[in-house]
Amino acid sequence: MKVEIKTTKITNKQAADALTRGTKRVTHDDLKRVLDKSDEIEKKFKNHGPLSRFIEDLKLLFSLMKDYMNGTYRTIPWWSVAAIVAALFYVLDPIDLIPDFIPVIGYIDDAAVVAICLRMVEADLQK
Q1: What whole-number distance in Å separates Cα of residue 111 and Cα of residue 5?
Q2: Does residue 101 contact residue 34 with C-beta atoms inside 8 Å?
Q3: In a designed cystine with 116, which of 15, 87, 88, 89 is the match (CB 3.0 to 4.6 A)?
Q4: Are 81 and 31 in contact (CB under 8 A)?
């Protein structure tokens, strides 16, 4: 089977659009599901080139989500938490803008969505 990809680049707009669509559908149950899959997500970040540069950010995001979930920290707006959840669900999805089964480039879009997410919630993370 031969798979052809017309483009290996993902624009910031494409990444932001994918993230925004996902964010609108996130529920508190989704937050729990992402936390339940933390080991699987961390493994993807550690083992796939473009994502590996975000491993420290991922640890911060998991901490923030756990604190939000257990009520320890609720200062961050729900939209920011939902954006983080949507970005991590995007990383988990093997069939997205650039399917993950394509070596190396399959994770470029995942890294772009994570980068856009971090930019979108940066101010809330700094607080």
Answers
A1: 18
A2: no
A3: 15
A4: yes
In a domain, 87, yes or no: yes
Report which of 12, 18, 65, 19 is spatially closest to residue 38, judged by C-alpha positions. 65
For residue range 58-83, what is the model confidence (pLDDT) as tens digits? Answer: 999 999 999 999 999 999 999 999 99
pTM flag (> 0.70):
yes
- Looking at the 3D structure of the chain, how many domains does it have? 1
Q: What is the DSSP letter of 96?
A: S
Q: Quote the CA–CA distance of 36 and 41 in Å, as a whole number.
A: 10
Domain assignment present for residue 120? The answer is: yes
CB atoms within 10 A of CB 59: 13
Whose tokens are 């997500």? That residue is 41
Q: Which domain holds residue 35?
A: 12-126
